[in-house]
Amino acid sequence: MKFFVDTANLDEIKEAASWGALAGVTTNPSLYARIGGKLEDFEAHIARICEIVDGPVSAETVAMTAEGMIADGRRLAAIAPNVVVKIPVTAEGLAATRALADEGIRVNVTLVFNVTQAILAARAGARYISPFVGRFDDIGEDGLSQLADIVAAVQNYDFRGVGVGDEEVEIIAASLRSVNHVSQAALMGADISTVPFNVLKKCMQHPLTDRGIDTFMADWEKVRNA
Ligand code: E4P
After folding, report:
1. Ligand 1 centre from 174 Cα, in Å?
2. Which end of the chain is more exposed for a tag (fewer CB within 10 A), N or C?
3. pLDDT digits (tens, 9 = 90+) for 6-63
4. Distance 177 CA to ligand 1 centre (A)
5. Annotated catalytic sites, by residue?
6. For residue 26, which atom of ligand 1 is closest to its CA?
7. pLDDT of residue 58
8. What DSSP assignment string belongs to 125-181?
9. Ligand 1 atom index nearest CA of 138
């Protein structure tokens, strides 16, 4: 499983990239609003993220029609070669996904909550599909079991040649809220987890690691002083 960081915050992206295990970034309008982003600076901000990270950087369309999404998608894809256009799984979104994929533009189909939405997104040429875990939990459903169903269903088929070139569709486990969400996504075979910075930090921490380091340091002091 690859790790993406789910944030528009440049400091967080730089720090996550410095750990050496970051494969990409996802953003959405809410994450951009959270950092106080300005409309006129949006494309420049995505360009700054693409300078930090070589891997896929998702930038979301805010249009509601296929024509608008296609126009947004072309503009966003022109920012940098690693931009992925994020589009919601609606009829208009699927039509825009097909049109952009046919032009060689990679699309991340977002706001996916069930198997049929995921398979339709793959058939429409999505390069990435983003099932949301936490938001499904928020309405009293089981986000992880829904993600497991989507992973299993997509793995039943070979979507090579349906999207951009012969690239295989990948599932991005999204709306992850805890280390357990990330662990379970890995166990069920999600290709990618996109993780908020604070959760990503917790993914590398364990109290026994800290305790082990303290013990090794204390014992090494004994060796030095012997
Ligand atoms: C990423 O692609 C999604 O937009 C994001 O993970 C949504 O997370 P949230 O449900 O915590 O807002």
Report:
1. 6
2. C
3. 999 999 999 999 999 999 999 999 999 999 999 999 999 999 999 999 999 999 999 9
4. 9
5. 86
6. 2
7. 98
8. T-SEEEEBSHHHHHTTS-HHHHHHHHHHHHHTS--TTTSSTTPPPEEEEBS--SHHH
9. 10
Q: What is the architecture of the domain spanning 2-225?
A: Alpha-Beta Barrel (3.20)
Mutate-to-test residue for ligand 1 from 28, 84, 111, highest number of ligand atoms within 8 A of CB: 28
Rg of the Cα atoms in the chain: 19
Q: Is the CB of 2 under 6 A from ligand 1?
A: no
The pLDDT, as a whole number, for residue 133 is: 98
pLDDT tens string 92-113:
999 999 999 999 999 999 999 9
Domains of the chain by residue range: 2-225
Which atom of ligand 1 lies closest to the CA of 30?
A: 12
Give the span between the Cα atoms of 33 and 45, in whole angstroms.
12
- Distance (angstroms) between ligand 1 centre and the Cα of 6 equals 7
Give the relative orientation of helices 42-52 and 10-18 as an angle to the nearest 10 degrees: 10
DSSP string, 62-119: --SSHHHHHHHHHHHHTT-TTEEEEEESSHHHHHHHHHHHHTT--EEEEEE-SHHHHH
pTM: 0.96
